[in-house]
Structures are given as structure tokens and as C-alpha cells.
Amino acid sequence: MKNPLSKRIVEIKPSGIRKFFDVVSEMPDAISLGVGEPDFDTPWHIRDEGIYSLEKGRTFYTSNSGLKELKIEICNYLRRRFELDYDYQKEVIVTVGGSEAIDIALRAMIDPGDEVIIPQPSYVSYEPCAILANATPVIINLQAENEFRLTAQELEDAITEKTKVLILPFPNNPTGAIMERADLEAIAQVILRHDIFVISDEIYAELSYKGKHVSIAQIPGMRERTVLINGFSKSYAMTGWRLGYACAPAAITEQMLKIHQFAIMCAPTTSQYAAVEALKNGDDDVARMREQYNQRRRYLVHAFAEMGLPCFEPYGAFYIFPCIKEFGMSSDEFATRFLEEEKVAVVPGTAFGACGEGFLRISYAYSLENLKVAIGRLARFVERLKKS
Amino acid sequence: MREELLRIIEKNSRIDLKELAVILGVEEIDVVNEMAEMESEGIICGYHTLIDWEKTSIEKVSALIEVRVTPQRGQGFDRIAERIYKYPEVNAVYLISGGFDLLITLEGKSLKEVSAFVSDKLAPLESVLSTATHFILKKYKDHGTVLTKQYEDQREKVSP
Prior knowledge:
- The structure holds 2 protein chains of 2 kinds.
- Chain A is α/β, with parallel strands linked by helices.
- Chain A has helices spanning 7-11, 16-25, 44-55, 68-82, 97-109, 126-132, 152-158, 181-194, 250-263, 269-281, 283-307, 331-342, 368-387, and strands spanning 31-32, 92-95, 115-120, 136-141, 163-168, 197-201, 226-231, 244-247, 319-320, 344-345, 347-348, 360-363.
- In chain A, strand 3 (115-120), helix 6 and strand 4 form a beta-alpha-beta unit.
- In chain A, helix 5 (97-109) packs across helix 9 (250-263) and helix 11 runs parallel beside helix 13 (368-387).
- In chain B, helix 2 (17-24) packs across helix 3.
- The interface between A and B is medium-sized, with 27 and 15 residues.
């Protein structure tokens, strides 16, 4: 029999998280700080709107790019929050989560051999999606001493003749790093000078704790070369609804829409109706959840300082990324031993790129009560390691 | 800080002050001062415990009583409300809009005790025109807390 498989897909490594997930699943009594999704339920009025749409029998396809009403609300939201103007008719596509948006943006923009710059540590799907789109991924290893922000110099050094796209993943999963306006202005100059494009994954935009998030599309000259990606999963606690969106100049969305319409057809209709409600009446929910995350964030920063575990203060998402290099173990070993000895699951930094070595991703999408128990165990574990 | 502080202690009045300072990102002394101030301003009126009496062996009956009254000249509803809230078995008295004027919540040991209160004390009051008593059969949610179910984390334990 011939080999049924594509060489390209076989060569892609499965997600590092998957491996860890399998181990944790075998330990029912383990507590976890390993999730990448909110602990809140979707606010009830949003769920209610989803239920209502089902009651009304709104169970058909929507237009490929999404419900008109939702696209209008997305544009209203982006204007209200970030002073960004998009044309709902031509510049918005509603997608199956931010993940789909990443995939179709890359596929719409890449020719074989083009290079895509991916700063790491970052979300697990950029590199495989770039490879699947026939791009050559070029990794930038972000540095702890820069608080894992992308600097103009790092970007400059990674750019070649073949560079087509920069993926910009801020606020960042797994580090919690953000890019402030000045940071964005600095890299925007490099981007403009080299005439490259940006796919900006801003799924955690609402979870910024040092002033309001700034989008790269707000920086002069950048909107016309940026695909802005956002969604409902993190800000409205709607992960399971699988709903995101991409906004970009019409020339780009037009091509993205072809892939979307042939591969996906349209995003789930129920989710789209619920999302209209989220954008219309959900600002207070977002603020309430953000404040809760922020309280937990402050608690963890304080707890790590007391533990003596080095860690920069993260200002975004719901992750904190402490350094464990002093214990002379790999992230994987540390996480495995911590799980075995204290029954707490954290994710090794290496799941998000090789340069995550020496770090752990700790999620604070848990109640303070849970965090206290888990952090108590971490303190005990660290204490033991320091003595031995 | 005031609003956030109130939100937190409304849900957890036993929270450690040090911890409260940490999660609010302020100094402990500021928390102490702010709380003292709000106590003296009457914003913080007490620190209570939410108890599901159903789960104890102690017998308790709660009722909501709607009361129609005649407001008194120059005093409106305040005088009759005060007359009613002075009874220790009365938990809460609200002036409400709609078909009734006052809503009272009441706790007693038994149905009999609550009925006796209504017929012997409340109904005979001069300005009380009528009452309607509703006994509470089951509390599903109280003070924003669901009493009937334990929280269960349904998420996968590790996800990207």
C-alpha cells in the first residue's frame, strides 16, 4: 500500500501541550493551573440570546463572512474601544475562533518560500499554520530581560528579502507580555521600512492591566498592512462557542473569504447571535472579569516575590511566566516532578517554543481559593528544591 | 478602590486584610482606613454569614409578607415601617412599588409561629389594611450564591 499521508503534515510535531495533557488526564486528583481558557461561564444574557436564537429556529447558514448585524457590532466595538474604522461590508470576516483567522490569513498571504516571522514563546498554532501555508517560519526568541516584548532590533535582525509577514501575538500567551504604544511605534518603523505585513493576534486585547490595549493597526501607516484578529473566547468567556473575527483591508479579506467559504462555509449561527448580544451589552461583564483577573494577577506577582521565584510583572492575558532556571532542571522535568510530587499541573514553557526553556506557564483563570492552594504547594515544592 | 473593595467584601467579608491589600494593589493601612471610614459612614453596615439552614437540623421557616398600609399624614410610610421593623423576628422591610406598599421578610421556628406573628401583631396594626403571606419552600440562590449545587470545573485540565 502507498503511504496515505502527506510528508509535510507528518513532519509537523504534535503540540507539546498534548503530551502533558495525556499525563494529567491520568491523574484525576491533580489540580491544574494549566488551562488557557477563562474559568467564568459565559455571562447569562449572552447564553440566553443563543438559546433564544435556537428557539426562533435560526438554525441556517449565515452569509459566508458572517451575520450583517454582528459585523456591524464588531465595527462599532473596534471604533468604540480602539478608534479603529473598518467597513463591515468588505473588511470583516467572522471566523471559527481566532485560530481559523490565523490559518486563513496566512494562507491568503503566503506564497511558497515566503518567510513568516514568529516571535516565541507564543501560542502553539502559528508555526504549524505557517508551515501548512507553505511558508518558512523564522523564529524570534523573545527575551525575559525585555519582558518578552518584541524590540525593533530583534525584528530588524530577523527580516530578510523573503520576509512577508510578521505575526504579532500580544497580549501574549504564555508570557503575559504586552506591547505598549511606544513599543509598537518602534517596530512599525521597521515594518514600514521593509514593506512587510502584520497578522496581529489580539485575542487577549481586553485582558490588559496597564491601561487600555493598543492595536498595531492604530499606529499610523499600519492599518493598511495589518490583519487584526480578535474574538469572543477570552474577553467574554466564550471559548466553546468558537467565534472570532479578522479585520483587514478589503484586498486581503476578499482572498481570506475564499478559503473561509470553501473550507468552513460560515461560523456557527447560534454563536453569532449570542455574540451580537455580547458586543451590544457585554462591556460591563468584560470589565468585571478583567478586574477579577487583575486581582489574581496581583496576588500571584506578590506570591512569587515572596517565594523568591524570578518573574517579570505580566500586564496581559491571564498567565504568569516564572523562571525556574536556578533549579538546574528543564521546564519539562520541573513540571513533571511538580505534578508527581504535589499534584499540580502547570505547562512547561517549552510547549510555546524552544526559548520557553527555563520557564513555566501558570494560568490564573482560576478562583483565588484554588490559586492559593496550588501556590501553597508550589511554595512547598520550591522550598524543598532549594534545600536539596 | 472603594467600589472594588466593597465588591470583594460583599462576597467574602472574612478575607484577610493583607491579602485584600495585595489583590487591590494598595497598602494594608489604606484598606484598614478605608474600611473604618465606610463603617463610620454607614456604608458598611455589618459583616454577616450566609447560612443554608436547610442543611442543619435546626428548624426554621421563612416567609415573605406583602403588606398594604395607609400612609400617615406628614410621615408617609416611615412610621409604619419603623413600627414593623422593631419586631426582632422581622428580617427586612422594604418599601416597594406595585400592588403592595411594604415587603417584609420574616423568620420563625415554625409555620405556626409565623402565622401567629401575622395574625397577632402585624395585621392588627392600625394602618395595616391587608397582608399576604408567602412561605419560602426552598432557597435555590441567596445573596448571589447558588445553594443547591456545588461548583464543578468542567474544563479540560490542560489547554493551549
